[in-house]
Amino acid sequence: MKITFLFSLLFLTFFVNGQTLYIKAYGNKTDTPIIFIHGGPSGNATLFEGTNTAEELSKRGFYVIAYDRRGEGRSTDPNATFTYNEAFNDLNAIIKTYNLKKATLLSHSFGGLVATLYAEKYPQHINALVLAGALFSQQETYNHILDSVRKIYVKKNDSVMLDKVSQVEKLNKNSAEYRKECFELAGENNFFKIPKPTTESKALYHQYEISDFYKTNIRNKNAPLLFYKNEKQNNIDTKPILQQLKKKGMPIYAIYGKQDGIFSVSEIDALKNIVGKQNFVSIENCSHYLFVDQQKDFLDSIDKWLK
């Protein structure tokens, strides 16, 4: 695979299995390393980069590495399998190539599952694990979405959408279709959007939309289908893993938007109990994309924990 790394003005290319991955590093390589793990499957790191989040984090004394997983976003690979082990192998390649002894994994959405499972398998490579609006109990999240939208449609007396919710509930819960339908219902009801956009968040979203990063916001529609076809761990609860990692002394931090509609109160309380109140932050007027909705609060929390 041929992987291209960008850092400052220096470009480095190396070969592993003959494929190019998009990876870019921000800041001084002697600073504390952070690897950003984006959402998906079918995600990318363009929003994290295009809103200057990676750059702003680097200005606070961190060496920030952003990349797109194999077969997703700018890391096109027609032979990608979209399994966790494939993601682990690429993370190991990144850590080796950048000569990192250890790194903090900053994970968003589906990236939280990738990061947690990687931390379980390769704890020797991890300084800390940060869950930022990250998934950790998939079925609980799907149940909450369906319960929430049903209440909305009951209130609206929308029989058509209530029938759709019932149909989704009958789908195979370990299927790409079930995941897709749940998240589409969440999106249609603005579960991922900030309730009261601030001047700063509006500016950041606009900045992203007119940037070159937005132009490369590539979504591979086949990624979820192949993930569910090839990966057996496709609907999991990582709370037991997080508990074990915490018990073994790994620092785990969690930061979530109070208005992130895909998580229930009970889910968030359970996570808070695992990581500890001092390691948990809930941001007001903030939804799923918390590093854009409330960027300063997000950066301040990361800075405080990791310094």
Written description of the protein model:
Belongs to the peptidase S33 family. Pfam families: Abhydrolase_1. One of its GO terms (biological process) is proteolysis. This is Alpha/beta hydrolase. Residues 33-293 form the AB hydrolase-1 domain. By secondary structure, the chain is α/β, with parallel strands linked by helices. The protein has one domain: 3-Layer(aba) Sandwich (Rossmann fold). 45% of the residues lie in helices and 18% in strands. It has 14 helices and nine strands. Strands 2-1-3-5-4-6-7-8-9 form a nine-stranded mixed sheet, with helices on both faces. Strand 8, helix 12 and strand 9 form a beta-alpha-beta unit. The radius of gyration is 19 Å and the shape is globular. The two termini are 35 Å apart.
Any key phrases for this structure?
alpha/beta, Rossmann fold, nine-stranded mixed sheet, globular
Number of domains: 1
> Helical segment tally?
14
Mind telling me the CATH superfamily name? Alpha/Beta hydrolase fold, catalytic domain
The averaged pLDDT comes out at 94
Beta strands, count: 9
- SSE topology string: EEEEHHEHEHEHHHHHHHEHEHH
- Provide the structure class: alpha/beta
Instruction: Tell me the β content.
Output: 15-25%
Topology:
Layout: E1 2-7, E2 10-15, E3 22-26, E4 32-37, H1 46-50, H2 53-59, E5 62-67, H3 84-97, E6 103-109, H4 111-121, E7 126-134, H5 138-156, H6 159-169, H7 176-188, H8 199-209, H9 212-215, H10 223-230, H11 239-247, E8 252-257, H12 265-275, E9 280-283, H13 290-293, H14 295-306
Parallel strand pairs: 1-3, 4-5, 4-6, 6-7, 7-8, 8-9
Antiparallel strand pairs: 1-2, 3-5
Helix pairs in contact: 5-6, 5-7, 11-12
